[in-house]
Known about the structure:
Keywords: 4Fe-4S, ATP-binding, Hydrolase, Iron, Iron-sulfur, Metal-binding, Nucleotide-binding, Transit peptide. By secondary structure, the chain is of the alpha/beta class. Helix content is about 30%, strand content about 20%. Strands 5, 6, 9, 10, 12, 13, 14, 15 and 16 form a 9-stranded mixed beta sheet that branches. A hairpin with a 2-residue loop joins strand 7 (about 185) and strand 8 (about 190). Helix 4 (about 140-155) crosses helix 13 and helix 6 runs parallel beside helix 7.
Amino acid sequence: MPTREEVLAELAKVKGPDLEGDIVSLGLVSDVFLSxxxxxxxxxVPAERAQELEPLRQAAEKVVSKLPGVKKVLAALTSxxxxxxxxxxxAPAAGDAASVPPPMQGRGGAAAKGKEPAAAKPGVxxxxxxxxxxxxxxxxxxxxxxxxxxxxxxxxxxxxxxxxADIYGPSIPRLFRVSGRxxxxxxxxxxxxxGYGIKVMxxxxxxxxxxxxxWRGPMVISAITQxxxxxxxxxxxxxxxxxxxxxxxxxxxMAQNVxxxxxxxxxxxxxxxxxxxxxxxxxxxxxxxxxLGIVENMSYFLCPDCGGRHDIFGHGGAREExxxxxxxxxxxxxxxxxxxxxxxxxxxxxxxxxxGAHAAVYKEIARRVWAEVERNxxxxxxxxxxxxxxx
Length: 391
Ligand code: ADP
């Protein structure tokens, strides 16, 4: 097993984002965690360059994996996807998106006046509640959380659908291991695909993956509106929406136009310090969408060998911030190989190991999310979010 210094010496061979310097001397590498052949660290990159710099992350994993005694390497890249840079292009079905009418109201519409209840926006027939999962920036595990939260809501007895609104880089098809093209059921209405008993709709089903395409804000909204309203969702208790990362105009307009029962903010411990999660919270507050709470993802590292818990990324920030901000704290998801590997393989841990420790974490988060939705329903639209006191 190498030492931390040996790992850093290898990482110093990886050039920085502009091929100048190296990632270690540029100060981009976090604390390195070593345990029984596993090496875990994160690399900080400029917010808008995450996608472009994925090879850098892979290069970092590769150099470290070559060290003797290293069995697994987990390098996390925390950064923002730049809207428009993703490899998507509308296929014929998605081409219709451009002809969908523009959003019902722009900025400064009824919601911006302050007290417009979410229920006043046109709902989706048959869908009981729509929940957004959002993050201030990309790479924090928003899609992984959406997927496992949806499965956990289902495990808790609800009928669940997932709408992948992260159209710059749709990952829901991979997470649910579903592919193919949604068939029309009548006219423009499409039948959603299904993964693990959950109805799923994603731009990933409608676009050619390889071809780049610039999605402009208004088109993003039209595409999402189409996926929301022109899909045969059937009877659902809850539709979970994987929002595009970030808090730009497209997200704001969407938050304003979709009749959301509430929003869940996913954050890593570091992001709170960087106030990205706060931006996410404020965005929903601006349009009076209730905040269901914050999930701290990659919160701590649970050592699979010694069973010990290691707070390598300064875990705990979310709970404190949530309390300060008056938003419920929904739970902590550990940084774990199993979560990453199962997500990336399309076999999410909540469904493949339903009685395991990770599934238990997601089910508890799902329980709290649903309790908040129901409480909001009972109380009507809240003016100010309440703090959930942990026992
Ligand atoms: P986002 O939707 O915020 O861009 P993703 O859900 O795509 O983020 O996650 C980014 C990467 O981090 C993926 O490779 C995913 O498997 C991994 N990941 C997410 N959450 C965890 C976790 N709790 N432990 C380990 N890896 C995780």
